[in-house]
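Researcher: For the record, we're logging two predictions in this thread. I'll number them. Prediction 1 follows.
Model: Prediction 1, sequence and structure:
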Amino acid sequence: MTVQDNFESSIYRFRKQRGVNLGSWFVLERWITDAPFRYAAPPAQSDLDVARGQNARSVLEAHYDSWISQSDWTWISDRGLNTVRIPANWILPFVWGGQICPFWDRIRIFSRCFFWRLGSARLIKAIETAQEFGLGVLLDLHAAPGKQNSDAHAGTSNPPKFFSDRRSRMHTIHVLRTLVACLHAHTPPLVNVVGIELLNEPQPSSDAELKNWYTTAIKDISVLDPTLPIYLGDCWKTDQYAEYIKSTPHSSLLVLDHHLYRCFSSSDISTPASAHTRALTDENAAIPRMFARIAEMLDSAGAGLVVGEWSGALNPGSLTGSPDDTKNYVAAQLQLYEAHCSGNFFWTYKKAGRHRDQGWCLRDAVDGGVFPPRVGLFASRSSDGDHERQTRTRDNLKNKALGEHTAYWSKYPGKYRHERFAEGFAIGWDDAYTFFTASSRLDRPVLELGFVGAWAKTRTNDQSSFWEFQHGFRQGVKAARNDFHENYCW
């Protein structure tokens, strides 16, 4: 895909994604909101349990129509966030051979709600509404046929069988293909769909099996829409799945999704909050080194890295009682993700109930001062009419960077095309400014190019000495951001 193919959707998809998860909307989680479970069948922990309970259709429809309202969309956009990740359940308007589907005995319940009438109901409406606010949408298949992990948020309270049942894996691809076809056919185009995540937190019986399934799914989806970014969960084996993406031919943007939590394991519980924070801010520590390494690898491969779920939650055993525990931990994560990732998504947007939860609930975190009131880059004045200064500055910085590049590689004899570096620098600078100026509203965050390596690959057909072009492109993007920040931001 080139910039000229679809400018608006390209801006949405390749910008730096600063987002939040809309948890427990279309995939229920009782710890987030208890209300939909009041008539659920035992054990009353999953969507299927609600579907098997009393008054299921009215309960579900009431929840879907009230959990996220117009005021919520306004709140999200006013905080500088530009994207939401929407977990989705797999129950769509298909028949799985008329059998096996665990929801089949209760399918009538869904005849007028989201799961059963996807094309005309609430998920599409959510995407449309997000677009009105300039928000991108990452669609996340949180609950797949057969259940891809052992958690209740995978749609049922039954044991998982996704990886032991070939029909579940085949049907999941059918679900994804139908969803993509539905999105692709929508009029007007849903340009704010930034990607589709194939599976949330899969727990494979073997990594080879998951990678084979990923390869099939990527191929089948790319046939339908070769421009749609595809997000892949890393099973907390980030190096291994980054290598998989690097070695996988792809026409669409591939994005590795890593989830970071530090409150579940025994070692997490015994580690003080200050140590958790230092482990994320010390550049020589394992996690920052891993992020830097993976980000560089994926960027060079024309792919990207995001943190699809993270929070400010720490186990009580880690806390000292100071509000700075959570505030510093959140700040450390934001700093890490800004430095190395193309996007991040806080889990979760809100929780029901009387008790505040500044670790898991973004609204409470902002209200409590442990999460910044706004994120992103904001301009204090317009850059319009300043093209001559920008061009002069660009060319001066390009020539300086080219001289340094040429001098460095002169120490290593070889065949080079240093003009490719200069070309990349200029295009990188100009494209960065294209993102900065895509929105003229000073009350909204400036859009920034986030998937730099992937975008660079769309900007040239000349693959000779591409590494020099890409190297120059990165430096041009970085120089442009520094220039924009210095001249137009507060």
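Researcher: Logged. Prediction 2.
Model: Prediction 2, sequence and structure:
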Amino acid sequence: MSKTRVRLWAVVGGLLLAGCSHKPALKVDNSDQPYRIGREDVLDIAVWRDGDLSRTLPVRPDGYISMPMTGDVLAAGKTPTELGEEIKERLKPYVQEPRVTVILREVNSSRVFVTGEVAHPGAYPLRGRVSLIQAIALAGGFTDFANSNGIVVIRNDGPEGQIPVRYSDLVSPKDTQELFLRPGDTIVVP
């Protein structure tokens, strides 16, 4: 088969596949953003060669941690590297060439909320990449009165706002895309 003919079939096939889409594509979260520290996370802060300054600290509900010599430091919203750099700068007047490492010991701030017609509505920890189907399973699945094709994912940290989702689209063998959840997402099952 000639190269021209192969290209022609590729174009025709692409056009056919593009025309078959009858439903809007789900917004899939494939972001590989670094983890941002949240409230109630637990951090290991190590100051090299200074055991008195090294410690394990919880992030307070206001987003701060408290350390000797540095006072209150805002941790929520920063990456561990960014927080380590800030602590390092604050320690410079007291410690010669401080080396600070921040390690995330416990992730307690990343949660999703499932409400409505599910067996066990509530807050669920977001460990790794969790899809909408997995979150519904964590909540015990649908009740007998659930409208599974009227699900709404409320996302406050992005431009999406409210994302309508049909469960039948999620489990359809024709559609392999999944909606991955972000910390703070709320799933409403009417």
